[in-house]
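hi!! sorry for the late reply, been swamped w classes. u asked for the two structures so here they r. pasted raw, havent cleaned anything up. first the sequence of the first protein and right below it the tokens
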Amino acid sequence: MGHFATGVTILTTTLDEELHGMTANALCSVSLDPLLVLVCVNKQARTHAVLAESGVFALNVLTEEQEHLSRLFTDDAVDAAHSLTGLSCRRGATGAPILADCLAFVECRVVAAYPGGDHTIFVGAVEDAGVLREGQPLIFFRGAYGPSQEGRG
């Protein structure tokens, strides 16, 4: 599966006024009517239990300049890695944090959760979405980050 290029997002959620985030690239569109997306979250991830309890999340699509954010939210060795302390964000319609400088976002309410081996497949009904700025998406391919090739000779 490493030969399948994916975009990179920061999944954000909130519980008891605490903001949480994690890097996520196992996601896809499920349905247009109703508008549904899914995201797969490792059961061992710090954010898994928070998401399961809160029932809301936002997927913040990163630009190629935001690789540092993706790396920050994958590092379990950093105590504050999964909090949004110091990052500019606003609360969306569900209360989930929307990162201010991301390319786009999709905000969801969890409508179903299914076992998926060592992951849980969370299906979210889209409550809000938008494009926040122009830019190239951050791409992950064969274990490495790279820029999008769109528009490049």
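now the second protein. again sequence first, tokens right under
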Amino acid sequence: MSTTSTKPQSAKGLSQPQNGLDLKEVLAEEVFRRMISLERKRSERTQRPFVLFLMDTGRTQPTEKNGQILLDILSALQTATRETDIMGWHETNSVVGVMFTEIALENNLILSTVLGRISDVLRPRLTSEEFSQIKFSFHLFPEKWDPNNPERQSNPTLYPDLNKRDGTNRFGRTIKRGMDILGSLLLLVLLSPVFFFIAATIKLTSKGPILFRQQRIGEHGIPFTFLKFRTMYINNDCSQHKEYVRQLIAGQAVKHPTKGTGEAVFKLTNDSRITPVGSFLRRTSLDELPQFINVLRGEMSLVGPRPALAYEVESYATWHRRRLLEAKPGITGLWQVYGRSRVGFDDMVRLDLRYARHCSPWLDLKILLQTPRAVIEGNGAI
């Protein structure tokens, strides 16, 4: 692993190593943030958590006095941490961080010991006022997600790569949002007769509301109210679907033959909860039309991963969550065009992540143009 000196031209107090401190062992901000991203991906593979410890020094001005205080803080950190821990600037000359691998935030005794060591080393070197300006925080990966919590589930501190990507791709995101607004408005107007016809058919053929409202998990794990035309009888039991979703995510689900073609898909095909009209709407994907309202609200995009169910997210492996972090959920996407229910859950997630890596207005346009053909052919639908 290559390291970069943290000696900034504007920080006078960090020009010379003192107290046995080797500044080359302190990673520069860009390198340290990249290491956080790499450590997060390693943790996804190994299932071993890590803790990111941040110390906000309260130093913002590059004075000689502040430089000496920062040197004392860095020296204290090196004294109190292990050789295998990774230390660097989370914000240059302001917030220093340490990544503790093979340690869990639940182990309060270990973390209290680490914090105690740092405090013991710092207190003799700083005045009470200087010490009081320091703020400590711990960030555990993987985070605990509660899909029913209305707040954002992902911790932005642990995803510096995604924050950087969003910041550098503002133009592309603006274009995508513009396409979403114009596209959803246009389709809502053009398809309004279809909306009225489907609404009347649903109302005349079964009891219950026209629209089906359900909590889904959106970008960064934030729940929102998802809209579809109702395709099921009311007051149905979803326990069978929950169990099948659990098996699907675990790679234990079996394919079921579809009606008509007999093609095997990863989906419940003989679901007694679905009405006759609902079966047609699902097979033609017409039940998805109200989601243009979700797109207009900004909760979804025209193109992106399908929004997840709350009980689906509860069964996710850590790496599965990336489909909720790296792109806003959409009505159509690579999975709908190239895979649909013919592929397993892991392959669906890989398609979602592939889209997130290569997302662009041109790719969105290509997927949108291919979607009608996928809907007409009905491959993987029921």
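hope this helps!! also noticed smth abt the second:
The domain at 12-142 is CATH 3.30.70.270 (Alpha-Beta Plaits).
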